[in-house]
Design a protein that fits this description.
Strand content: 15-25%
Largest sheet: 10 strands, mixed
Low-confidence stretches: none
CATH topology of the largest domain: Glutaredoxin
Strand order of the largest sheet: 5-2-1-3-4-9-8-7-6-10
Number of strands: 10
Number of helices: 10
Structural class: alpha/beta
Order of helices and strands: EHEHEEHHHHHHEHEEEEEH
Bound molecules: glutathione
CATH architecture of the largest domain: 3-Layer(aba) Sandwich
Distance between the termini: 39 Å
């Protein structure tokens, strides 16, 4: 029996929205596990070995972190209706990278600042702690929004311009990861409230394109509770790893490594290196509760380091 595709996510997470729409595009049926939007997230970190970000994809005892790898894995398992069209993968990845860094940062600071009264205080506390910063004051959040509004306005025309020749999707006639990356960023701008809807006034091509993406839906899904997802992981064994293609500088396959995001929420996941190539790095770990688990990350955007005795000591003493 094919194991179920389980997405650990929460409703207002824009990166989760990226994956939900990817599953809508591919007509994938999936199970939905709702994760708390702030720490503690005991079930999620039990599955990931410490990674707290959202979304996370679970297929049996294989756990996929970060949307870039989640999309690749969904494509590998469900290749129909690709979002990596052969003639624009490079451009689509480069556009996604702009959308999810420079553009998203400005959109996020603007949207958080303009909607802060609608958001619980603990969200600000949690995200500041996640970045090792003090909780910002209300005035600081409003200032950040004011600084970033002009930057959002300076970048929105890029998107209208990408669609200027009447193309259906960002890279042409074929839907791609660039559509997903830009879509979830714009979604974030207006998902919280309609206070920023006016920022999109006059962008007619962008509005029509947004409506086409929204039409894709989220795919058929039903709820699953977190305990049931852990039971599924405990009953399964991870897939055998594909062949690795490490570089000469990389730690040996089979050695103990720690993996952390290289930007924020830099919690380490420690395990035995199982697979390493230019796309992916994965580790295996085992616990009494879940047995053997394989946790997978994209290669780019994550640091992989050998575990020293000091890191091991720190990990075991908390
Ligand atoms: N590069 C990551 C970014 C994921 C991310 O930052 N997700 C946000 C939610 S949209 C998050 O995890 N925030 C902290 C949290 O939910 O604990 C990806 O593509 O999955």
């Amino acid at each position: 029996m094919t194991p179920e595709i389980i997405l650990h996510h929460y409703d207002f997470s824009n990166y989760s929205e990226k994956v939900r729409v990817a599953m809508g595009y591919k007509s994938i049926a999936w199970k939905s596990v709702i994760v708390p939007p702030v720490l503690p997230k005991p079930a999620l970190v039990a599955l990931t070995g410490g990674y707290r970000r959202v979304p996370v994809l679970q297929i049996g005892a294989d756990i996929y972190c970060d949307t870039r790898l989640i999309l690749r894995e969904l494509e590998r398992r469900c290749p129909d209706r690709t979002y990596y069209p052969y003639d624009c993968v490079g451009a689509a990845n480069a556009i996604s990278s702009w959308a999810e860094t420079t553009f998203l940062r400005s959109v996020m600071l603007l949207a958080w600042g303009r909607n802060h009264d609608l958001m619980p205080r603990e969200l600000f506390e949690d995200r500041a702690a996640m970045r090792g910063l003090p909780t910002p004051s209300r005035a600081a959040v409003e200032h950040a929004a004011a600084r970033n509004a002009p930057l959002v306005r300076a970048q929105l025309p890029f998107i209208e311009n990408m669609l200027a020749d009447g193309r259906r999707w960002i890279c042409g006639e074929n839907f791609s990861v660039a559509d997903l990356a830009i879509y979830h960023t714009i979604w974030f701008l207006t998902d919280r409230s309609d206070r920023l809807v006016h920022e999109l006034d006059g962008y007619t091509k962008l509005a029509a394109w947004m409506a086409r993406v929204l039409d894709l839906g989220h795919g058929a899904h039903s709820e699953l509770d977190a305990a049931a997802a852990l039971t599924i992981a405990a009953a399964a064994t991870p897939d055998a790893p594909r062949d690795s293609h490490p570089h000469i500088e990389d730690p040996p396959i089979g050695s103990a490594v720690e993996i952390r995001p290289n930007d924020y929420a830099r919690d380490a996941v420690i395990g035995r290196l199982d697979l390493l190539d230019d796309d992916e790095v994965s580790v295996r770990m085992s616990s009494a509760a879940l047995g053997e688990i394989a946790v997978h990350f994209p290669r780019v955007g994550f640091d992989v380091r050998p575990v020293t005795t000091t890191t091991q000591r720190l990990a075991t003493t908390g």
